[in-house]
Amino acid sequence: MSKIGIDIQQKVGIKRELFKHDGVTYDITWEDGNDLIRHGGPWDRGGADSYYRRGANPHYYMGGTGNSQMVEENHMSPKEIMEYYAGFEYNELAGDFKEW
Questions:
Q1: What predicted TM-score, i.e. pTM, was given to this entire model?
Q2: Could you report how far apart the first and last alpha carbons of the chain are, in Å?
């Protein structure tokens, strides 16, 4: 989304949720079209690994989790790896963990 589009949405009352990690600010606003937080993406998988306390192991799925091809760290771009770790850290800071 363009900066102008974000400015317009802010003026009509949509509050953006932002998270800064390693000098990068991520727009994690829950809305249609926000590919960053899509199910199966690097951010989502980082958050899930933190939630289930599996430890950090960068990966993501081309589509939905478990029903599409998994991409492991050695095939991820630096940007995708950063998104994974940002999702992991976001959940760590939120303290949202599975209670077994």
A1: 0.85
A2: 39
